[in-house]
Amino acid sequence: MAINDIQFKSTITLAGKVRLINEIVESVFIDDVYMPEIYDEQFWTGVALAYIADGMAFDYTLDEFMEAFYGGDLRDRMRDAISSNQLRSISVAIREKIKMRLDKRPADEFFEKATNLLVQIENTLTGVDLKGALDAFGKLDVSAELAKALAKNRNTKEEK
């Protein structure tokens, strides 16, 4: 089948939409570095794969697809077939997710990892009042406790 014979659905399901958004966002990051120069190709091939009509196969290389997309009428046919409202919604969501991922600061990552670790500890220590222990630790006056321990240690040595 020629690439120009591909037919597209007008909409996809919510699950399909979410999957498409996540796949495109992941595909434009290589080794956790955003690659805007491949955004257009990743976006449109992802859209083509998600919206291809039932029973049709996508048996084309990326180069063949992009040649038909940029050099032929494939882009216009896709835009005519696919709901512009759903496509706009997908595009906005992708850009927002990319922005959120780029804006993620090291401190955010630290707190996310710390939260995950606390959840793991909490799940491991079933029945232990972890919150109470952490609250008590947070109220602990470390310098006062050190002073008490040093004084006790000094008194013990003097008694010997």
Summarize the structure.
This protein is mainly alpha-helical and 160 residues long. It is built from eight helices and two strands. The chain has a two-stranded antiparallel sheet.
Q: Let me know the number of strands.
A: 2
Strand order of the largest sheet: 1-2
Structural class: mainly alpha
Rg over C-alpha atoms, rounded to the nearest angstrom: 28 Å
Overall residue-averaged pLDDT value: 84
Q: How are the SSEs ordered, and which strands pair?
A:
Layout: H1 14-27, E1 29-30, E2 33-34, H2 39-51, H3 62-71, H4 74-81, H5 84-103, H6 106-124, H7 130-139, H8 142-159
Antiparallel strand pairs: 1-2
Helix pairs in contact: 1-2, 1-5
Please name the defining characteristics of this protein.
160 residues; mainly alpha; 2 strands
What does this 3D model show about the protein?
Helix 1 (14-27) packs antiparallel against helix 2 and helix 1 packs across helix 5 (84-103). This protein is elongated. It has helices at residues 14-27, 39-51, 62-71, 74-81, 84-103, 106-124, 130-139, 142-159, and strands at residues 29-30, 33-34. The termini are far apart. A two-stranded antiparallel ribbon has the order 1-2. It has 8 helices and 2 strands. It has 160 residues and is an all-alpha fold.
